[in-house]
Write the structure tokens for this entry.
Amino acid sequence: MSEIAIQVEELGKRYVISHQRANGDGLRHLMQETLTAPFRWFREKKAKGCNSGVSHTEEFWALKNATFDINQGEVVGIIGRNGAGKSTLLKILSRITEPTKGRITIDGRVASLLEVGTGFHPELTGRENIFLNGAILGMSRADIGKRFDEIVAFAEVERFLDTPVKRYSSGMYVRLAFAVAAHLEPEILIVDEVLAVGDAQFQKKCLGKMKDVATQEKRTILFVSHNMAAVSQLCSKVVWLHEGSIKEIGATDQIIRSYMECRLSQTSERRWEPEQSAPGDDRVRVVGARIVQNGCVTGVVDINLDFRIEIDFITFQHARNLLTGVNLFDANGQCIFNSVDWRDSELQTGRFCKYVTIPGQTLAEGKTSVLIRAVFYEPDVMSAVIPDALVFDAVDSEHPLTVRGHYKDSWPGVVRLRLTWSDAELVSTCSKNKLKDLL
Amino acid sequence: MEKLIIEAGRQERHYWRDLWRYRELFYFLAWRDILVRYKQTVVGVAWSLLRPFLSMVVFTVVFGNLAGMPSNGVPYPLLVFAGMLPWQFFSNAFSDAGNSLVGNSNLISKVYFPRLIIPAGSVVVGFVDLLISGVLLGCMMVWYGYAPDWRILVLPLFLLIAIATSLGTGFLIAALTVKYRDFRFIVPFIVQFGLYISPVGFSSSVVPGNYRMLYSINPMVGVIDGFRWALLRGQCEIYWPGFFVSLGVTLVTLLSGVWYFRRVEKTFADLI
């Protein structure tokens, strides 16, 4: 049985982003646009030959030229970095938004689960929400009635069925929401990142349920996740999206391996050339960045020692309150921290270099990627946001003060801080007899 | 199983069938809004009686007693209430529909369904309120010993027109509010303004004859006149040419509302 369930041909989705957020999409903007339209038209017509169309909107292809097929009964993972177009693809497939070009042919009833608990109303009881949420996900009242007991048992909320869900703990809420979704019976199921919520035990249960659905009931599943472990457990095939296009499609293990390798290849120094097309806009452009430890540019950072992230940028006009910032991410894409230089600043036009020092004994070991940002506060403009601008290996050294001490095995934690412990103070003594009793 | 094709700019061929298929969601959303509407209020459903009742009292005092407007032989409170009924329905449905899409943005950005369901659901909620206040009107009629005649059988027709007006304007305003949030501020103003330019507190017979045509461009004029005619034994005559103008405006509003809504529906998820 290898009939095609979903056929995607040259799919593309374009968004138009306006840079002047202050103007927005309000009525005033519309009026202003309408009033100035004739003049603009005239000006543009006049300037046509000169190729000087200065527009404050920019096109952005969230998804371009995606072509792939999914067979019936296949479980397909979709991976890629944030902003790679995964969610856009799912939104188009679930008919929430319209593609700009291309075509999709779907054979079968689709249910999509882009969020857990969509449409849950806090004022309604658990019972009422099961019916409401079921209807939202496309189940008929009869279906829900038939599976009601199963849903309740799966969610483990029997005692609270008639309590408004606003009184639920967040864990109960998520369990109930997933339980409804897990009992959908579509031919094609589209799932986005829903396993990212809930406690570990429940996540395991959900994953198990999805596995059952896939293997026993032979349904087609599209599964987006950042959790590579979950993807490799569930999926037989993976689509890897990168900056809106498909980078690779193939067997799960192979694609995940090359994805991990590619995502985090060491980049200790970056230079964006030519400067006119470096990330940024007509006010500021980031032209270079590097990681420096012990006075040298390096891709391998000793976590016990200070190091710094240096950013080179050019200002093209007098820049007031340019906020620079960095985010550090670990190998799982988890943000370790965010740092912004909030100080007021006045910069003339020119080339600048700025650095931030990350103290030793902060980071944990592993691949770490750096996102660089240059933002203006007023008006709120993101001039440059560069994910994975730099990638380095954080390693533990034979430093005498290393946090792990003599312990050589894996050391958990997103950060690795050196903390101060107090000395043990004697609270009371135990007599030998008492000790015997205790033992 | 039929294949579903998604393409840029493609009009959904089965949109109306889909709408039918999603009727359960429609019931559920309306049911949710009705359930939630008076949660955590002390008087609860009584609000849908209190509001029109209090407005009726004020209007009777102001227009009937102070201004001494003619009542065509009908007890003035009944005259006001018969007009208040469709007006409250329209204004509730209209303002709820306006906010409905934005208020349900989490649904719109996460699930597919024909979006017409959401503003239509607001109209249903308004309709339930209308039925509840209809009971109050019945009580008032008993109190005044005023029995309607055969004309009440035509009332469903006017109800339909009232629903069509609410749907048409509701679709339009809901779709516009998604893109231009300014309408959130315009809607309360329209509702307040409309209360005074519609014949709610007075009979439309006070409008001078040569202006009645113009007056009837307001679709609620036809609806309110129709309600009064059907409920009050025809003692408030309908100005028929004006009624058909109102009816025409209603139909145009409904069609253009649906048309505009359908045209921009697919961009909701990107804009909201």
